[in-house]
Design a protein that fits this description.
This protein is mostly beta strands. It has no helices and 28 strands. The protein is globular and about 55 Å long.
Amino acid sequence: MQLTRSIEVIPRLAIKARSILRGHSSKIISLQWCEDKRHLVSASQDGRMIVWNAMTSLKEHLLKLRCSWVMCCAYSPNGNLVASGGLDNSVSIYNLKRASMDPCQDLGGHQGYVSSCQFVGDHRILSASGDMTTNLWDVPTGTCLHTFRGHRADVMSVSVADDRNTFVTGACDATARMYDMRSEKCVHTYTGHKLDINAVQHFPTGYAFGTGSDDASCRLFDIRAQRCLMQYTHDRILWSITSVAFSASGRLLFGGYDDYNCYVWDVLKGRQVAILAGHDNCVSCLGITGDGMALCTGSWDSVLKIWA
């Protein structure tokens, strides 16, 4: 904190809800932006996954899931594939360029629910599971390339580094772990949280990552120093964090909370600088476009909101 005293305080943020995406009929569980910064995919417990054009607020694809108890979704970098995972213990891959909206690949191998998934390039995908493992899959062949172990409880979230060589996981054992896909080993275990870690997200530079936990705190961990740099808490905020994301500059940390709000934190000073209110239920997921121009929040109130 002493090192950041000379840095100017962030002025009042003029972030407002610019559009509302309606189409789901039940809790929205997960969302992810496409790298084209125009499209995003959302998954809901209504058994549907929707691909949206965020610029027009229109649906472009409506995918019926085999398992309505979905827990995650993902968008491939080239925008051709989307994926979902949930209580069926598998990852379903859908090709948006095909006429058929049935899965083109089912990746089954986990012994527990799939809580999080993220593409590693266009042909590989990572899946985190309640069986305490994270699997790396080859999408075209449906082959599991490696199973990463180490956590002692359900793995809840995964975040892939921009270099696509390493990734971070957060789990119910209150730890975050960094794995190297080249050596297929755990590089380091990060501790500090007191309860389940529900969300992990890499910092824009790739040298740090953020976490959100059931202990009502977000934390910033430095990868090179292998320690926690900052903790984001407030005496009046006692709710669990479901999701986290950084602004493009890395100065702001957005957290989705169970109290229906999205809180915005100054990463350098550790202070809360804004509250994005408007949802009528838990903010279950959020994501920021690659250029940092828009934030999307998803909620159990069955709607998505685009903020800018």
